Amino acid sequence: MSEERAIERINEPNTVPSLVDDLRDLGIKDGEMVLVHASLNALGWTCGGPQAVCDALREVVTDSGTLVMPTHTGQYTEPSSWSDPPVPDEWIGTIREGMPVYWPAVTPTRGVGAVPECFRNYPDVIRSRHPEVSFAAWGSEAEAIVADHDFDYGLGEGSPLARIYERGGEILLLGVGHDANTSLHLAEHRAEIPKETVTSSAPVVRSGERVRLEYEDIETSTEDFPKIGTAFEEQVGVVEGRVGAATAKLIDQRELVDFATEWFEANR
């Protein structure tokens, strides 16, 4: 979206104070744990861009709460499976060998938007060690959420998603749909449905040396996530409001994961 279009979507620019007011009106309180999925474009023109969004979220949650965002790195997946864009077959070996090691403090995100990319760069934010599906966290329980992120089944029981579930955290969809709702992957892992196991690998540093880390996961899909989200909203409900020009939804993560686990078992 162009800046011109972003300006046209709102009557006044979003600022940190206006975003704070909108987030509080939605129901987010200090001391809460919130997993955020956000689209900067959906908010309309924002003074300060993604930094303003991060600053507003931090001000609302405060350091007595915990703020979490996905900081995934799709560039560390198997290059032979890439489709956006695909690469020539003769490049695949070079990409595997030439990709820099995953470095939590430095490696940029891919495909999760400008807000998480900004958030991960704050000096007091901690990022997990998973080379493909990392999460970043700030606040009172940040270390507990992202520490020891399991390499195998990185969105399952050994993931930050499961640590949020244990602590009764909330999900904030800020201008995005349920297709971006990573907590539904936790339900995929928990559901008693047929699953295909896949092996992936990525370059990391071990004892000062570059090594190619292999890890297992299930084959996941977001194709039916919008259907699950719609069913959950109709049968259980979410808190919905406006933040800037964006539709915002505040969701009990535990309720959603439990609902989606049963939905998968009944419909997949």
Which helices and strands, and how do they pair?
Layout: H1 3-8, H2 16-26, E1 33-38, H3 49-61, E2 66-70, H4 92-98, H5 114-119, E3 126-127, E4 135-139, H6 142-146, H7 160-166, E5 170-174, H8 183-190, E6 197-206, E7 209-218, H9 225-235, E8 239-243, E9 246-252, H10 253-267
Parallel strand pairs: 1-2, 1-5
Antiparallel strand pairs: 2-4, 3-4, 5-9, 6-7, 8-9
Helix pairs in contact: 2-3, 8-10
Share in β-strands: 15-25%
Show unreliable segments: none
Strand order of the largest sheet: 3-4-2-1-5-9-8
Provide the number of structural domains.
1
Helix/strand structural class? alpha+beta
Radius of gyration: 19 Å
Number of DSSP strand runs: 9
Helix content: 25-40%
Order of helices and strands: HHEHEHHEEHHEHEEHEEH
- Give the count of helical stretches: 10
| Anisotropy-based shape | globular
Instruction: Calculate the mean pLDDT score and round it.
Output: 94
Query: Could you describe the largest sheet, including whether it forms a barrel?
Result: 7 strands, mixed
Distance between the termini: 35 Å
Would you write up a description of this structure?
With 268 residues, the protein is of the alpha+beta class. It has one domain (3-267). The chain is built from ten helices and nine strands. The chain has helices at 3-8, 16-26, 49-61, 92-98, 114-119, 142-146, 160-166, 183-190, 225-235, 253-267; strands spanning 33-38, 66-70, 126-127, 135-139, 170-174, 197-206, 209-218, 239-243, 246-252. The strands form two sheets. It has a seven-stranded mixed sheet with strand order 3-4-2-1-5-9-8. The protein has a two-stranded antiparallel sheet with strand order 6-7. Helix 2 (16-26) crosses helix 3 (49-61) and helix 8 (183-190) packs across helix 10. It is globular, with a radius of gyration of 19 Å.
